[in-house]
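[stage:ingest] chain + small molecule (alpha-methylisocitric acid)
[stage:ingest] validated
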Amino acid sequence: MAFDIEMIKEVYAQTPVRIAAARKVVGKPLTLTEKILYAHLSEGAASQAFKRGTSYVDFQPDRVAMQDATAQMALLQFMQAGRSQVAVPSTVHCDHLIQAEIGADKDLSKAKDKNKEVYDFLASVSNKYGIGFWKPGAGIIHQVVLENYAFPGGMMIGTDSHTPNAGGLGMIAIGVGGADACDVMAGLPWELKFPKLIGVKLTGKLSGWTAAKDVILKVAGILTVKGGTGAIVEYFGEGARSLSATGKGTICNMGAEIGATTSIFGYDEKSAAYLSGTGRSDIAELANGIAEHLTGDPEVYAQPELYFDQVIEINLSELEPHVNGPFTPDLAWPISKFAAAVRENGWPAKLDVGLIGSCTNSSYEDISRAASLAQQAVDKKLVAKSEYTITPGSEQVRFTVARDGFLDTFDKMGGVVLANACGPCIGQWARHGAEKQERNSIITSFNRNFAKRADGNPNTHSFVASPEIVTALAIAGDLTFNPLTDTLTNSEGNQVRLEEPRGLELPTKGFAVEDAGYQAPAADGSAVQVLVAPTSDRLQLLDSFAAWEGVDLKGLKLLIKAKGKCTTDHISMAGPWLKYRGHLDNISNNMLIGAVNAYNDATNSVKNQLTGAYGEVPATQRAYKAAGIGSIVVGDENYGEGSSREHAAMEPRFLGVRAILVKSFARIHETNLKKQGMLALTFANPADYDLIQENDVIDIVGLTSFAPGKPLEVVFHHADGTHDKIAANHTYNQGQIEWFKAGSALNLIEVKA
Ligand code: MIC
Ligand code: SF4
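[stage:predict] done
[stage:export] tokens:
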């Protein structure tokens, strides 16, 4: 069904040849990352010693994966590209649109009903263009990919920022916007700035309460949410080899939270065991045949500081379990310091809900280790004080853990098993009472904990930890409980201690599944009709964006000067808005509604410069659009952090915003803006952020000689008649400037098609 052994054979035939060619030009030992990148240069890209962080390089990924919430826009664009079939193996996964409310079965059948139009659309487009379709209930994209498609030494892109999960199996897997996926599916090369390389040397071995999750929680604390921007993180060392493949997947998956392009581990015995455990021993055999090419050169790992741009060392034997948060995934607390942090900061110590699962922590190992704690709770007569939910990552994992009795154990502890889907992780959570906006705490084994993300309540303090720590804290119902040192009072009034969690990396009886939920496409899809009703409020065919008018942009209004964190959740909220992911006009009504206006510290309240009145951001921008006036958005550091959703770039484009001018960008968002024909600019001098005033009229000058490496000029005309002229940097190369001129990258593919 799932993997394409022929394609993998081809990749493995080319890999040694291409690496040998790279060795000649680079002239020194190679990291694993370099090997895989060089093995995937597109036909046209000559092998040369690329400059890290500077050279734009064309690659040819082996496959594409898309999840339902982003696939809609990706495929609407693909339909415009004029091709009859996808050029590389591609899949769609229905995971984001299932709302968690009661439990797996009821929630799934409700979702199938509610999202029928969208699922039918995705199924028929997939069928038509040769794309594999994973039905709702089959699981979360990254788990399904890890189980079925990821392979050592491969390269894939996915329309989701957590695509790097496959790095756990030694694949370069990168999250992108739908427009990038559209290029690759159309057979075009995929462009990436040759990344910087961060090496993480893992020594020692995990034990006791510490889990793979704690490695990435610790790394997030060290590197922060922007420290990985433009870099690939390569893990190595004896500690790396001791981690299970799914544990490695967790680390790579959450590497999205440090802004890394992706993260990767080398091929080793654990990878081989996982491949065999998931029915792919033939791939393990092939990989064994070229094993030396599926890991970095020994010289690199012996003296990493000579080959990586930055090196971090973590001793797994000394690593403590961590809890990160609230409101940002990089606020890292070792468990021994967490209780004091909770008290000192006045965070609600009572824990309302513990949630395990998600794409990053829903493996057999995760679930079995969490279940060992649940079993102890039952045996030791502890009644879990918090609500507790479990989202399995795939039907295969769910079926297997059900067979092995773990779901029954959770049930005895009062846990609720949710559908194999993203659910609460992306705000698909009908959390009763959230609308009261009470201060409360939750803890999850997910990736992200931005304000409002899980339940829409800005006062929910969300923390991130391993499934083991989440389970222990849910049993205690108290964030200040440290399972390593503290006891709990059981229903008989006795003090009891939770022993260290235990689990299995892979099921001893093997994985099993009745219906994995896969639907293969038609061999010839030319007769398949894809229908989009013109009256639909969920799907809308795209119109091309207008080409650049050929002159400097003058007389623009300031739509909003966003202050502080402005993630894609702030720019294009998910949760209730996910339903409009296939309808650009409708989803544009959420544009920037979560961003904080620097002039009044309020969200979704900006000054309409035409009337002087304050109004909602989307409505204000629609007023400018109606008046034929362009605008700009100003932002702070790491603007567009988080997800790959290109809606965060398409909405401003659609509503007539011309430029986004910020202190710095997150990688995927910056590319998404460029693809859609927007100007993505950064302050040459970040302090110039302070010069812009609420009533400014803005000009962007220099576009007629827009060129790589040459800053543009932005003039802020203030209301008092004075002005400030500043330099704005950009990272457009010549090809990307052509996208801007054409109105979007897609406009160019359409012309060529
Ligand atoms: C997320 O975790 O934020 C999401 C929801 O998976 C997004 C994709 C989306 O917005 O659809 C991501 O990570 O890219
Ligand atoms: Fe889904 Fe959450 Fe993973 Fe995003 S981070 S893919 S929403 S489970």
